[in-house]
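Provenance

Sequences were taken from public entries as deposited. Structures were produced by running a predictor on each sequence independently, with no templates supplied. The record for TMM8A factor from Himantopus himantopus is shown for reference.
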Amino acid sequence: SLYISEYFSQSAQKLSFYSWYGNAKLFHFHVPEDTVLLRWLLQASRGKGPECTNMEITVHFRYGAPPVINPLGTRFPANATVRPSYSISITLSSAVQNTTFVNVTTPAAGDWFIAAHLPEAAGRIEVKGFSTPCPYMFQADMFVLRLTDMPVLEPGVAMPQTVISPAKPLHVKVFVPKHAAGMRFELRNCVTSEKKACAVRAVLGSITLPQSFQRIVTCTGKVNCSLALDSPPWEKWLQIMVESLSAANASVSLEMLASFTACRPGSTSSFLNFSSLNQSQTGPRPGSAGAAGSPTLPSGQASRNASNQRSFCLQNQPVVREDLDVVSVRYRLLNGPSVPVNSLSPTLLLLNLNTGMDSGGSLVISLLLNKTSVSLANATVVACVSAASPVLSLNATHNCSTAFFQGYPLSVSASSAEAMLIVLYPQTDDWFLSLQLICPKGRGECNAAEAKVTVFAYLTPCFNDCGPYGQCSLLRRHGYLYAGCSCKAGWGGWSCTDDTKAQSVGAQNLATLLLTLSNLMFLPAIAVAVYRYYLVEASVYTYTMFFSTFYHACDQPGVAVMCIMDYDTLQYCDFLGSVVSIWVTILCMSRVKKILKYVLFVLGTLLIAMSLQLDRRGVWNMMGPCLFALVIMIAAWVYHGVKRRHCYPSSWKRWVFYLLPGITLAFIAISVYAFMETNENYYYTHSIWHVLVASSVAFLLPPRDKHKKPWAWSQKLTCRYQICQNDREELYAVT
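Predicted structure for TMM8A factor:
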């Protein structure tokens, strides 16, 4: 046999602490056909700085779709299918780098996904630039070993083969045709080279993580062995590995035979399918026979179909796949949403999810039983949702299992007429929905009964659009798109349905009131600025108070939200007003000449607006103007002190009652903003920031100029008569 090795690599990604699915870094690989060995090379590394500590990296694997993970232990939505992912942990302790290998023998061909993340996020809000986070990097590479000339086992034809040694297993493959109801695999004439009893083991199927459904048949001391499979995967290559259990030097000769049991499907004629498709797209014509509902069969043809149902093992219902958007598909039944279900054979619906871009959403299937359509009150419609092949024996078993897949059961009855199933990240494949009417006393009780079940099936990026307390985000890894929910207001879970830590409506209203009304503390600063004739500064404070109030009213995660304009505009204006307020306050304290002060006001505001457009959350957008303004203020104070030959400001009362309290409030505000804010305490720590900053401004504003008199409102706004004195000089003519 000729083996070929291939190597696939992807660029490293920087890991993040986990708070929602978007923090997990996804790697997408494609395993080629006839692969007999898959080896993952996982490389994790960290920085060398003192901020880097021991860290545990969790890596999840899944075949066919991204892994469904739950590191936070939150609840999934009701009716959602949850199967634990296969995961390993990589620890970075004293070593800067860690290399781990993961081997998978006979892996399934197709898409494989790896997701890696750090432990749960601490929830602390870090100001960009104040601290340098430790970089944790992760890279996944894939090495495959595939067989170029894998023998093909033809159905119904015995193929003699020889297993040379236990170290060299034999690999063959057989193609499973469509509508195969069962498969029988046989090992015949098994003898060793030493003419002793045969000891071999045959493994059918490939490994798929997190769950693998390989079937194993072991022949020990037998000449012939066999294994029967129900519902093998349709239109796929099935890999078979035979390994010897005999002595190391003994070879094993045997014959392999695969045979299939065909399933004869029955369905509506193609003419009626096209007729219903045409009517569903263009609408029925007035007065036509099909205007009142779906097209009906003639009485003679209907009776013939009823008599032929016994010879069919399933009834196909035509389904049209309608692509709506990215990871958004709607399935439409051509014969109407109601599906006839009987007890003679299962009704089958094909849901196509094999484009390679459908596994990043949620498959939702909803069943609704028409109670008037079932004549038997105790009858039940049993349904199974499975991938690769349908479940064809619903009347015999209720576990919804096929040869290599564990399906998802559903049932509707007169007592419970509705059922829903949510498949999170469905694997790339053909999915089938099988329905059959089951009676408690056997099939004979309900041979003539028929139930009408309304089926709704669709693929959506996020189930229920993540609800009122979540945001559905479309994520991308190279060309692959998938969706995830980012929850808010304390809600959690895959679809933001877990209210364990959710904020009540009262708490949300309180948070909104604190963050908005705390900006009213700028009113004393505005009043002080107006009283001291700092009208430009008062205008800036008014601007900051207005946009900070309405930005935080729009930024709330819950239901207490009010946006007067676009969110991004409000955020930009809030950040701009905050930085410009600090800028004009420090320049006002410097007591430079008016013309220079106003030039610095305008020039600094323009530069601050530019820097905020480049990086809105950078710490130097605030610290840069502050430091530059402080340099100007200190230089001006030194100049005034040298010129007057004493300390400036000269009054000790100015220092004790104004400057020192204002500076103290400003330092406390910066400490709260930079080091104390978390996601949980944000609404009151940030409100404290508003109060402290606004109060410090009122203390730090310098007194008015000496040549300016206080506002004399009684003289400015006169509403009374005044006695005017005529100072004209009288001219007299002398004659």
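The first strand starts at residue 3 and ends at 9.
The chain has four domains: 3-124+131-147, 157-262, 312-460, 505-700.
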